[in-house]
Amino acid sequence: MIEKDFVTRGTCSRMIHVKIDDEGIVRDVQFVKGCSGNTQGVARLAIGRPATEVAETLRGIQCGPRPTSCPDQLAQAIDQALQQNA
C-alpha cells in the first residue's frame, strides 16, 4: 500500500492524503480544507479506479483563473506517490 500526504499549492485545500494499493488502485482520498462538496465528489469518483487513469483524467484542470485546481493537485499527488514507490 502506498500512502502519500501531499501539500497542495494554489488551491483552497491544504493537503491531500491518498492511498493506492499494490495493484495501483486508488483506495482512499481525503482532502484537508477546500470546497467540501467538490472535494468529496472528486475523492469518491477516484476511489476504486486505477491511479494512473485518475491522474490522467484530472491533470491540467484549472479553477477559474488559477493554473491548478483540487483535481489537478490530486493528479500531482498520485504522480508523486507512484514515482516515490517506483
From TrEMBL:
The catalytic activity of this protein is classed by the Enzyme Commission as 1.17.4.1
Q: What is this protein called?
A: ribonucleoside-diphosphate reductase
UniProt KW Nucleotide-binding keyword: yes
Alphabetically, the GO molecular function entries are:
nucleotide binding; ribonucleoside-diphosphate reductase activity, thioredoxin disulfide as acceptor
**Which reaction does this enzyme catalyse, per its entry?**
a 2'-deoxyribonucleoside 5'-diphosphate + [thioredoxin]-disulfide + H2O = a ribonucleoside 5'-diphosphate + [thioredoxin]-dithiol
Q: What class of enzyme is it?
A: oxidoreductase
Q: What sequence ranges are listed for the domain TSCPD?
A: 5-81
Q: What UniProt keywords apply to this chain's record, in alphabetical order? A: DNA synthesis, Nucleotide-binding
Q: Which organism is it from?
A: Denitrobacterium detoxificans
A GO BP term here is: DNA biosynthetic process
What domain of life is recorded for the organism? Bacteria
What family classification does the UniProt entry report for this protein? Belongs to the ribonucleoside diphosphate reductase class-2 family.
- Is Nucleotide-binding among the key words of this record? yes
